[in-house]
UniProtKB/TrEMBL annotation:
This is Amino acid/polyamine transporter I. It comes from Glomus cerebriforme. Its main location: membrane. One of its GO terms (cellular component) is membrane. It is found in: Membrane.
Length: 517
């Protein structure tokens, strides 16, 4: 059978015995927490510098919210139709059963090895930069990326990211109960930081010159490549709107409450994101965004924001430390659920050699220690090796890998809704069809824009679109493993069953003839 992804609640291993606890309010809280991540502390500076015009910045974030809302409504409908947890793995399996479970299997492969590690590593890359600011009082000066980069700060930032991942993995290994308590505490810190930023910007309401003219960092206006970078980063910040579909078994009256939870939560997040961007644009002098010496993307924009608000570098360093805690909380959510996905994959014999070890839970700590260790090793490989083989900013590289891969499956899953409804002879819903086609067209737009992605003009085009190459190579590898580890054994089992049926038929014929004699 295809891999069934575990949902992200604490007792996900005992799904059948779980009580249906999620109402609209609790579902909203879960979704808001999963959508709001460390991206909002890094992407506003990137987006502002790329498109230069504050009004266009607000417009793009608004469009991001609208598209994400459409996606959440589509997934709500999928949840109502299937009434099971499982997310894309289940939906792709039902919509595209042939070739036998290929779509579902390849998504599972990409989710475990590319999408989830990309999100974790991107968040940790951002957290590492804020950790640098907290200790040094200035943003790291990354003039180059790749193997030839200086040890300081490039490799130190990588080591910091791995150290943060080690901390997260360690406390998840030691106690499932305390891991959830720590994660909830970090969620509160993240929420408080968002509110402080949004409200602090009001104190600078009189600083309106930034809204009157675009950035003057370049003589030329923003090109298609700039919008490509900005849009990918915006959708990374909105990612997570489909999380509740992995917890569908917990909803009371999912037909109504899932849709309400998704709609309200995306609306709340969109409003908070707009407030944060307005705060940054209003409070920060353009000098904090314009950097004529390097092509830095101002990923530590929140630290610059606090420096501008309080005019005290020590205060900015303290708040940067809390941003690091926020990043840890965001990464911890993915580490927690990611390890459960690996356990689920191992139970489906996704890893033929290591399945038994990866699906085992430690009885003393009640944690999937082996899965957590495997995830730590793979994400460390991502940070050290994959991130260093490309001369690109690590945060942008990892977010681009995760988003490009995710949107390929968002498109197939959304179209799968139309296929499934037609197959089940459901009455057509005009509004649902409109938003589905709008979402699919938006997805194709993001895919096409990705080919015009130019992060830094100094590096080659191949390095700039390396995330596309990594995604397609991974898809090919996933299809290969599907054929070798899943489809071919399925064909052999099918042949064996047919042979047994033939033998049984022949035996029955012989017995029947014998009884006549």
């Amino acid at each position: 059978m295809a891999l069934q992804l575990e949902n992200t609640d604490t007792d996900s291993i005992n799904l059948p015995s779980r009580k249906k606890l999620l109402g609209t309010a609790y579902g909203m809280g879960m979704n808001v927490n999963n959508i709001i991540g460390a991206g909002i502390f890094a992407t506003p500076g990137i987006v502002w510098k790329q498109v230069k015009s504050p009004s266009i910045v607000v417009l793009l974030w608004t469009i991001g919210g609208i598209v994400s809302l459409c996606g959440s409504l589509i997934y709500s409908e999928l949840g109502v139709i299937h009434r099971e947890s499982g997310g894309e793995t289940l939906y792709l399996s039902k919509a595209y059963p042939r070739p036998y479970q290929m779509a579902s299997y390849v998504f599972s492969f990409m989710f475990i090895f590319i999408i989830r590690p990309g999100i974790i590593c991107a968040v940790l890359a951002s957290g590492a930069q804020y950790a640098w600011y907290a200790f040094e009082g200035v943003s790291p000066n990354l003039t180059s990326n790749g193997w030839k980069s200086n040890f300081e700060p490039y490799w130190i930032l990588k080591l910091i990211a791995i150290a943060l991942l080690l901390i997260i993995t360690s406390y998840h290994m030691l106690s499932n109960k305390w891991a959830n308590r720590i994660n909830h505490g970090l969620t509160i810190i993240k929420t408080i930081m968002i509110i402080i930023i949004a409200l602090s910007g009001i104190s600078k309401y009189h600083n309106t010159q930034n809204w009157k003219k675009p950035l003057e960092s370049d003589s030329e206006s923003s090109g298609l490549n700039s919008y490509s970078v900005a849009i990918i980063e915006i959708f990374f910040s909105y990612n997570g709107w489909n999380t509740l579909n992995f917890s569908l078994d917990e909803f009371r009256n999912p037909e109504k409450r899932l849709k309400l939870s998704n709609t309200y939560s995306v609306g709340i997040v969109s409003l908070l994101y707009l407030m944060v961007n307005v705060a940054f644009i209003t409070a920060l002098p353009q000098d904090y965004i314009i950097n004529t010496n390097t092509e830095d993307f101002n990923e530590t924009i929140a630290a610059d924001f606090f420096l501008s608000i309080f005019n005290n570098r020590t205060v900015a360093r303290i708040f940067s430390f809390f941003v690091v805690l926020s990043a840890i909380g965001t990464a911890a959510t993915s580490v927690w659920s990611g390890s459960r996905v690996i356990v689920s994959a191992a139970k489906s014999n996704f890893f033929p050699i290591f399945s038994y070890e990866l699906q085992n839970w430690n009885d003393y700590f009640n944690t999937p220690i082996n899965a957590l260790i495997a995830q730590f090793i793979w994400c460390s490989f991502f940070i050290l090796i994959v991130g260093s083989c490309v001369e690109a900013d690590n945060f942008i590289l990892f977010t681009s890998i995760a988003m490009f891969s995710s949107w390929i499956f968002y498109i197939f899953t959304s179209y799968g809704l139309l296929v499934t409804r037609k197959r089940l002879n459901y009455e057509p819903k005009i509004f649902l069809s409109i938003i589905t086609y709008f979402f699919i067209i938006s997805g194709f737009g993001i895919i096409i824009l990705s080919f015009f992605f130019i992060e830094r003009s100094q590096i080659s085009y191949i390095h700039n679109i390396s995330f596309i190459l990594i995604t397609f190579i991974s898809l090919i590898v996933g299809i290969f493993f599907w054929f070798i580890l899943f489809y071919r054994p399925h064909l052999k089992d099918q042949e064996r069953r047919e042979m047994n049926n033939q033998i049984n038929t022949q035996v029955r014929i012989i017995l029947a003839e014998s009884s006549k004699e």
